[in-house]
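hiii so um. not sure if this is the right channel but i have a protein structure encoded as tokens and i wanna go backwards to a sequence. like what aa goes where. can anyone help
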């Protein structure tokens, strides 16, 4: 077996790397939420100032059967490496995954990292081969997220009543929406909220630190999104002094516009208690239906212990379909 880095410029090998990940997910997960090939290809060609991405392939007799990815953050959390491992269903349980993992550990140590972080997906009430594999490698559970989906057309009838109930609680705030780029006047608040995620969102035992955000990082991500075909639909809550104090974001990929990923939703601690989380999510769902009518399903993940956000998602009609177990391993 030969483990080597995959050159993003080698389209044929890069495509095989993507295909292995898709095949592994298709065989084990209830929905197809794999990044489209065209997006993966375009993203792999971009050199980033905030992240180094290393792709590893496991080759047997010249054919790649295992694929791994390491994300090495460069602006924050430089002690950790985020990793993922996939083995094609036709070649599992032959030592390919373990060999890939060991190669990734060695590479991370060589980059000065001391912690590996990964995610394993499993049914709501059962283990999975991926979870058992991670445990066998020495990874330990740090946080459990419920992965949820919502059918937007089927739940649209709920929004008017939810808006009416929430409106009296936040009459001093403005709810605004935008696509593709954060308005200039809202960027300072957006950066603060982005840095609050790792501080305020439930992190369990994950040994991750707050991220560092500034205007350059925001604009760089937006430029990268435009280059790869991702559109961010966002909604925010603006306080009376004009500061952005709450935000929610959904990413829609133009190469797979039928589904979107509901990423972070956060409200600054001093502005909680006004049902702003619900307000921004309902507003964003409305804009999604208006601007992306072909987007029918959203997927999101929430820590099991995050009762307020789980309540919001339940009211909006999200239902849990699997678990994402966030795990870590000291090097």
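sure thing!! here u go:
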């Amino acid at each position: 077996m030969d483990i080597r880095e995959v050159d993003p410029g080698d389209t044929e090998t890069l495509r095989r790397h993507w295909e292995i990940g898709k095949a592994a997910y298709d065989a084990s997960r209830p929905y197809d939420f794999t990044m489209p090939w065209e997006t993966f290809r375009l993203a792999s060609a971009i050199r980033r100032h905030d992240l180094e991405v290393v792709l590893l392939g496991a080759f047997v007799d010249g054919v790649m059967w295992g694929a791994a990815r390491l994300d090495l953050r460069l602006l924050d959390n430089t002690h950790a490496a985020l990793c993922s491992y996939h083995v094609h269903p036709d070649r599992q349980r032959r030592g390919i995954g373990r060999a890939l993992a060991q190669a990734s550990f060695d590479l991370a140590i060589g980059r000065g990292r001391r912690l590996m972080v990964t995610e394993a997906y499993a049914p709501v009430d059962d283990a999975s081969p991926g979870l058992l594999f991670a445990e066998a490698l020495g990874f330990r559970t740090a946080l459990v997220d419920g992965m949820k989906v919502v059918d937007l057309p089927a739940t649209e009838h709920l929004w008017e009543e939810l808006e009416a109930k929430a409106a009296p609680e936040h009459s001093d705030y403005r709810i605004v929406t935008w696509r593709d780029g954060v308005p200039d006047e809202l960027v300072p608040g957006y950066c603060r909220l982005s840095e609050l995620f790792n501080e305020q969102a439930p992190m369990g035992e994950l040994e991750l630190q707050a991220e560092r955000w500034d205007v350059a990082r925001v604009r760089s991500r937006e430029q990268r999104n435009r280059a790869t075909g991702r559109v961010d639909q966002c909604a925010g809550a603006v306080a009376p002094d004009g500061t952005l104090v709450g935000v929610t974001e959904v990413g829609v990929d133009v190469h797979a516009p039928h589904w979107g990923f509901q990423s972070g939703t956060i409200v600054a601690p001093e502005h909680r208690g006004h049902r702003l989380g619900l307000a921004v999510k309902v507003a964003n769902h409305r804009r999604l239906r208006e601007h992306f009518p072909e987007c029918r399903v959203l997927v999101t993940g929430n820590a099991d212990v995050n009762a307020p956000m789980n309540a919001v998602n339940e009211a909006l009609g999200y239902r849990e379909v699997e678990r994402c177990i966030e795990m870590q391993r000291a090097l």
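oh and Residues 149-323 form a domain with the Aminopeptidase fold (CATH 3.40.630.30).
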